[in-house]
Amino acid sequence: MEKNIVIGVCGSIAAYKVPSVIRKLQDRGWNVKVVMTQSATKFVTPLTFETISKNQVYTDMFRENSKYEISHISLSDFGQILLVIPATANIIGKVACGIADDLLSTTIMAFSGKVIFAPAMNVKMWENPVVQENVEKLKKLGYVFVEPETGKLANGRIGAGRLADVDRIVKTVEEIFFAL
Question: For the chain, which domains are there?
């Protein structure tokens, strides 16, 4: 069985770790397509992900396409797993509230496979009761979370919110796939 994954990249400093995740998944036989939020493109360029994934990177829901595909539907049909990494408070909140207003959120809403969130954000955001309520709501709905680690954050503070270790994220993807 082919192993296909859609990786949704959000705007966070931790986005620089996503190419390592892609490489490790490819080394394990995964085919990867990437969808990026506009904020994510401020941290890592689409060209980086195109080069590594060897696939077109999707950034715009309304982009002209020579294949006449509906991007969020074709992406949702492609993968058995959708990994959102780094998952921001914004995307977690959108999904928890059923908001689909960009390419990544519409892809998640159309996705029938397993969705995994790997959050990364400042400790103040991660510990915010609204974010925690949204995480719990999504868990109850069957979404999977690779919990962030405690460690040194981008602003130099120590706390929860650091993106989980790359190997732990890849291991979770593989465990979920083989459980499907």
Answer: 3-179 (3.40.50.1950)
